[in-house]
Each structure stands twice: as structure tokens, then as C-alpha cells.
Amino acid sequence: MSTQSLSYAAMTKLPRRLLLGPGPSNSHPDVLAAMAESQIGHLDPAFLDCVDALQLRLRRLFGTGNPMTIPLSATGSGGMETCFQNLVEPGDDVLVGVAGVFGERMCEVAARQGAHVARVDAEWGTVLDDDAMLEAIARVQPSLVAFVHAETSTGARQPVEAIARAARDAGALVVLDCVTSLGGLPVTLDTWGIDAAYSGTQKCLSCPPGLSPASFGARALERVARRKTPVPSWYFDLNLLGGYFGERRVYHHTAPIAAIVGLAEALRRIEDEGIDARVARHQRAALRLVAGLERLGFEPVVAAQDRLPMLTSVRVPERVAREGEAVVRRRLLDRHDIEVGGGLGNFAGSVWRIGLMGENARDEVVDRLLAALDTEVGETS
Amino acid sequence: MSTQSLSYAAMTKLPRRLLLGPGPSNSHPDVLAAMAESQIGHLDPAFLDCVDALQLRLRRLFGTGNPMTIPLSATGSGGMETCFQNLVEPGDDVLVGVAGVFGERMCEVAARQGAHVARVDAEWGTVLDDDAMLEAIARVQPSLVAFVHAETSTGARQPVEAIARAARDAGALVVLDCVTSLGGLPVTLDTWGIDAAYSGTQKCLSCPPGLSPASFGARALERVARRKTPVPSWYFDLNLLGGYFGERRVYHHTAPIAAIVGLAEALRRIEDEGIDARVARHQRAALRLVAGLERLGFEPVVAAQDRLPMLTSVRVPERVAREGEAVVRRRLLDRHDIEVGGGLGNFAGSVWRIGLMGENARDEVVDRLLAALDTEVGETS
To answer: What pTM did the predictor assign?
Structure first.
């Protein structure tokens, strides 16, 4: 069947935006084309070959040998939920590092599992202090330590190794949120000693939202197998998911076929480019963006050494705040078809979050945004 | 961006199948085209208009005025999970009608919430006995009664009204699985008195798998609001989902944008055809299929008055069983690009499940299958 048709013209067309918020980013046209070609069943041998190739590439991207490296049938928040519903039981002590909205969310999800949640906070826009985390690990003796690699609410990049090592040395499982980092920053789960990690497709992988690529190591799966209580979630139960994403390919739920085919194509493209080149591209684009934003009077929130390349948070200049930052964002959308993100939580109303994720981490994209901003909010506009 | 590109040719192409198993069915090309055009954010005013239109049409298709009628960000099994995680608390008495795999699954999901699960069983291929259900409702006095409208493992169509009325009269919430029925059979939640229902996109709606359209009435939402314990699932928490799918449009998780745009297009197409015409089309195609299968020696499992139109289960003839039913299905796939389903559970190895769902419920599709079957397993083949 063709993706073109007469009757599609009858549908109200959606505008096509340049997506420079905190995600989703733009999907690559090859990814969308692959999805549009997927007329195949979830137990078809040809589709299962595609799943095999996807899992292999996802392991390489996560830097892990974990066999249980899979696309979960949910968005990134479903990946977070899968970790806590499987790895935490009522009464467990869990330590969460909180430096923004997604660390907060981890506390909330863990508490719903009946965990005793201890937390170490960092000021928004900064990263967790290693010593504070190490002290808390020694004091709390948690069964699980969780934190965020790339905090999408602030644009800060969390160093991973020291905290992960201390947590493992204390016998805890380590869970890392890689929603915004995977595909734009090096992620090396096995070197870091991460037991469970999850991401999302709509950030640096340049797919539509809908899947959470995730990886679970042997220590995590042992914890699940040794649970005293059943995993509350049937849908996210790793024991059951392992039946489909393992040798036996047992039906659990119907896999989101189109999204999986799209992710497989995205991962193929990432390997074609090479992860080192891709990381460097994100870095270059971010530097160009920050320089241009500073010229326009936007002030980076995060100190230079802690900035994410794929997500830049900036305080809006006085003249933008005066007009109302949301009004200006709406004008960018309506006049230029460009979406940038507002602030979440503590940053609502004063901060913009500008994403250069995956395919959008390019000079020409930066220049298009800067030109639009110059028109709308430049000194002379 | 175009959905065509040179580099896509570099990808290993998947075969394009005629999907006549228990789901997924083939997606309509307009749905895939709409998905491939979706470069838009989940808080974009134009996308939120699309969500509004989707919710309006979904209410009409479910036969309900429930404001909380939404696409859940998961497959159909995620819809089941959402019902039980929200509507059941530890210690609750839950009654499930079991006539196949999906009734069994309801028991399992309810038990994981700490419910006391009572069940009424029907022989596979038959429907629940009204009197047995009414007796159990009176005896158990459950807080929730759940059953399946279209049992995908057997092909049986469950009458809804008498059981739903008795359950509500006894003060129970009523949960109905409409995964395979929605879009192919009349579904009238408000007339029947259903408090919560869920479906899947990959059956009679002719979209890829990945969303669970669902609806929750006032009594169900009151039950959630009055819970003594938090909903264990943050991802599926109806209180939080109501923030995004309500007036305020508060960010909860990133909506699966492409899938939602596809579903919106599918629902538009269904209204263009008209649900009555669509139901009649499913009915006609099923009659043609059964007549043709009987000529080839396949014997329907379900009595005529209880058969689903969109899913026909048949015992394979002796000569197919002798060769191995899975071998013959594989030949249909390899030689004809046609997928039909094997049996699940009790029916594994002896039964085929043949779906004529959504766009595939057409005479020419039936004739293509029958011709292929005649070639492969006809008396003279």
C-alpha cells in the first residue's frame, strides 16, 4: 500500500514544526518512512529478525552486554515505572538524587511501591554533589540508588561514575535515567556499573515518542526473581517481558510494531554516523547555540562544565519577560513554526529550554532559530 | 520532510503481509500517512486540537458521554492494567468472567493488586452463562465485575447487558474488555452501564499497535478519588492522566504523538463510513469466510449465534493437522504473504484464528485467503 492517497487530503493537516523544545525532537524522514511500511505481525519471523537487530544495536548504544536490552511498550516515563515496579518492594530503602523534575518523579514512583525514600537534593541547574551522595549511601544503606544522567528540566549533565561505584560497593542496585542523554552523549552502562537504565525515543534518537529503550543487568534480574511479592504491574513485569524478548519469543502483549520498526531504522542510522561523530555534532551545535543566545541577551542557567549539549536552559532577557515569555514562544510557533520549551516547576515563567536533539543538532538548525529569535526579540526588532 | 528518501533503500525491507491473524490487522495507508506527517509537539495548540477531535470521536464510537475517554500510551494490555491498578485496592473482592486467555489475564492482573479474585468459568469457545454470573455476583458481592466482550483467544462474542445490569444493581463497578470488538461490533457503554472499558488500535481500528483507547465513567473516577492507597502505577494513574486529557492540558508524560495522529485519522475514517455500515461489512465478510472454510474442511469452534464477526476460530482439518498446522501457516506466510493465527492455550496446535478486522473485512480479502488455502491445503492440492 502506498503512503500517498487521495482521501488523506481530506484530513485537516497538522502544521510541521521545527521541534526545539525538551522533546519530542523531529523524527528523521527515514524513520517515519520505515514506520509507514510496517505491515507485519509481532510474531512474524521477519519482524523478529528486526527485533534481534534492534536489540543488538541498542546494546551497543547503551554500552552493555545485557541480553535484556529491549524497547518497552511505553514512553520514557514508562521506563522509569518499569524500574521501580520491578526492583522495589514495600519497605525497601531507596535513595534518589534529585536535581530537577525527573529526580522528583523518581521519588514519587518509588514511594508508590511502598519504599522508604531518602533523597539528596541539588539546587536546580546544578548537579548532585558526589560527597553528599556518598554520605547518604553510607548512612541509608539503600537497596537501590537512582538518579538522572541528563536532567531535562534543568539542562544539567550529571557525572555518573563516582556515585554508581559507591552505590554498588554498598550492595545497592543502580538505576540511571538516560531519557535525554542516549544517542547524544556517551552512555556506557557496563563501565559505569549501572544495573538498570531507560531512555525515550523522542529525544536524541529522532523517533516519535512511544517507546522506552531500556536495559537490565543480571543483578537487577536476580532482584526481580527473588522478590517476595509479585511485581504489581503485569504489563511491565520483566519476567514476562523476557519471554518475548528472549529465545522463546512467547506472546506477552502485542508489540508496538510500527514504533519498533522506526526505532530499528533510527539505530541503524546512528551506527552509520558513528556515536563519536554524533556526540561531537551535538557538542558543536550546542556551543554555536549558546554563543548566539548570549548575543541576544539570554543567559545560560547551568555552569559551562555541567551543561548538556542536547538541551540548553536559558533565562529569558528582561524584554522577553516583560512581554511574557509564553507570548514570545507562541509567536515563534505561529510565525516561524519553531517550538522551544518553557520552564518546568521552579523555572516556569523565567527559563526557556532549547533542545538540539538528534537530527536537529546542526548548524543550520541553530541558525534558523537564531534568525527567528533576532526577528522577534532582537535588540533592534 | 518527505517520507521518501534514498537512504531508506539501504534498510533491509520488511515483507508486506496481509494480516489475517488475531491482530494486528493491516493499518490503513491514510493512517500511516498521517503518522508519517506528524512533526509536532505534545503541547502544540494544533496537536491539542487533534486530541480534542480524537476524544470526541472516541466517545461516539464507545457510545458514551464520559469526558475521560482517552488514548492510553500503551497497547490493549496496558488498558487492562490501567483499569485494575486504578479501580482495585488490596483486599477488594473482584469477580471475573473467564472464557479464554483474556479473562484469565484479568484474574492475574487483579490478583497482583492484592484483590480477592472470584471467577466464573465458561468452556473455551462458549460464552459466560448469565445465571452463573448473576449467582456469583449475589454470592461474592464484589466491588468490581470484569469480563471480555470479544474473547480473542476463542472467537466468542459475549452478551453484555444482563451481567452489567446485575453487577451495577449490586453496587459493583463494571469493567469491559473491548480490545477486539471496538470498531467492528456495536459498543454502547452508557446504555449497557459499563464504568470502564478499553480497546486496542491494532484490531478493528486499523492502526498499528501501541495505544489503548479507553473510557472511564463518573463512578469509576469517584472510586479512584476515594482510594485509601495511592495508585501503584504513576504512568497509568487516572488522576494524573486527567490533567493532560482535561481542560488544563498539564504535562504528565510525553504523549505518543504519531500514534495519536494515526488514531485520529482512523476514527475520522470510521465516521466517514458510518459504524452501522462498518459492522454490517464485518458481518458479511465473516459469513463469506466461514462458508469458504467449511468447504475446505475447517470446522468453526464457536456456535453460530455466539461467533464474533471479526475473528473466526476453526479446527483445522485432519490433513492440516497431520502435516502440522504451524507448517501450513508458515507456508501461507512464505508463499502468499498471508498471516493467520494459531491457537492459544487450550487451542494451541488444533485451532486457527482468522481475523477480518477493520479494513480487512472485505470480500476480496476473504477470496484471496480462500484461494491461497485452496492451493495449499485444498482436497485436490
So the answer is: 0.96
